[in-house]
Amino acid sequence: MSRDLYTGYHGAMTAWRQMEVVSNNVANVGTHGFKSQDVQFIVDDNENDGSLAPTRAAISDIRIDMREGQLEATGNKNHVAVHGEGWFVVQGGQEELLTRNGNLSIQADGSMLAAGLPLMGESGPLRIEPTLPFTIDQKGQVMQEGEPVGKIRLAMADDLEPLGASTYRAVGGLREASGSIEQGHLERSNVDPMEAMVDLIMASRHLEIAQKALQASEEMDRNAARNGSPK
Fold this sequence. Notes:
Helix content is 26%, strand content 35%.
């Protein structure tokens, strides 16, 4: 594969990955607790021998935007939001996952689900009496008939891996968080719709340019092969 064909292919793959990330941001504008992702680029000069200027952009990192989304007052007692630092801890199979989606679902057995997974308290999955009303204070204490029945656990992580459905896997372990909890509120996605649409248009143009460069390189290769001379 010629150098410029390889460069075109690399550019198309990079632009396609950028499109995937930006499209996912746009698709989750209305997803509670969703955190947008940002593609970070660097100039990739690994193919350079020092005599040529680097010409390829490569993705160096895909970062999660940790900024808090706007808190929306709903008045629904089954809605809770984290204000400030922290994530709800949920049980995902054999591991603990994180979410900021506080749209709680109370099951027939009294278990509380967040993002479709059991919500964790300080001593395990939270469970209430499903026939009784409950309140949650800013420290996460769950109360029924004036008595505490559990406390919502909040945690932080140094790095996160997105898993979809507003859930994330902690990379490097969990630590305690200092945020507060607001009952009757939900956290909106932190995606800026206008900014996300502009990013989508730009990513689409990058992909189009890379595809045209790839097509041009392929045509030059074919012409060189027909003429029996090196490109």
